[in-house]
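Record format v2
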Amino acid sequence: VLKRDYAGQDCPIAQTLEVIGDRWTMLIVRDAFLGLRRFDEFHASLGLSRNILAERLARLVDEGILQRVLYNERPPRYEYELTKRGLELNVVLTALRQWGEKYLCEPRGILRRRSDRKRAVAAIVQEGTPAISAHDLELVPVGPRRMSRGK
Amino acid sequence: VLKRDYAGQDCPIAQTLEVIGDRWTMLIVRDAFLGLRRFDEFHASLGLSRNILAERLARLVDEGILQRVLYNERPPRYEYELTKRGLELNVVLTALRQWGEKYLCEPRGILRRRSDRKRAVAAIVQEGTPAISAHDLELVPVGPRRMSRGK
């Protein structure tokens, strides 16, 4: 019922949520940005059932967000990599991470431009402002802060 | 079950999705950005059940994304408005809209800076790049394109 009513909300935001709005789907995309490529890597990272993972991966391939790449011929084995369309979800993911790090938890990583290590942020800017592409971004993990002395 | 497994994914993206990842919730936030404020306005726009809407609005207030503002004393009636924290979801919503307009459907609106009408986009940029705040943005609707001649 939700699905059908919801589909009536045909603005671009609603349609995008139809494609990636499922939370596991968004986390699969997040993991793909973090460099995961194989079924077992996603499975180990997310801890969801293999059936659900397979279904979500197939959907992401259907939607053109991930593509399957053969990495072993016998037996045939595939990896999943982000397409151009998938890479452009970068702004969505970064905006979600940024908001979460500001309001919900400690930062877990520093997003920066690979070439010069300058920090990068998701923002609304004037069209034409130089943007940093997904290929030139890296997320450098920061560990949990430790107490320096005493407890 | 999803919920519990999912909560184990404690990175900022997973936590943000815990708060706003429900699709109706995201559409309520979208509508708040479009200027809707009253329960009946959200209800008319989204067409979801009053119970679910009430529950989602209460959750958004609990999470500090919307705040209730009294607009009528007798009987007491409240409007919902975005808090500062809510306004900062702007980047998430704009990124979702932008991706949807690029890959899923025709643009429905032009996002621009109110003060000079320059077009605005969501992007990953170097930290320190001038950003456009939610208060200085407007989304100008564009109608569906019409065929000019013949079919």
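The longest strand of chain B covers residues 66-72.
DSSP finds seven helices and five strands in chain B.
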